[in-house]
Fold:
Amino acid sequence: MSELPPPPPGVDIHASRQPSLYAASIITWILAVLAVALRFWCRRLTKSGYKLDDWLIVAATHAFKGIQQGYGLHLWVLGPDFITNFFKNLFTGEILYTLVLCTTKYSILAFYRRIFATTIKVAVYVLAAVVTAWAIAVISNPQIWTGTSHSSVYGQPPKVIWQ
Structure:
């Protein structure tokens, strides 16, 4: 992984999308934290206590922060040494994204279970099992761990790039 191929013709490698990507990420995260804080504030005002769905959404909000190394820059500006970091971040980001989605879905299912205590119980458990199976399938995907993925970069499997 010592050199990169030349950039495609007509691409300004010094262009940066960092301001718009950071703005979108930060604003979204702030809105999520604000919504969760308001949720807890309302629970406190009504003295209804904190439930499982509240704590699951807190976990999802904290895991949402993400990885931002080289965010919005062209690979040619960062250099060939950054490829290893990029794939480490991508690998970690895929796992974190899966966990965020799962905890958010579990929170919604716990909320439904709390509101519709008897009528939706079986459906909630079935959907929770589906979400769990999906998470296990994504996280334990053998292509990710063994490096046999067809989506290799520059002809290298992910396990080679990781090293």
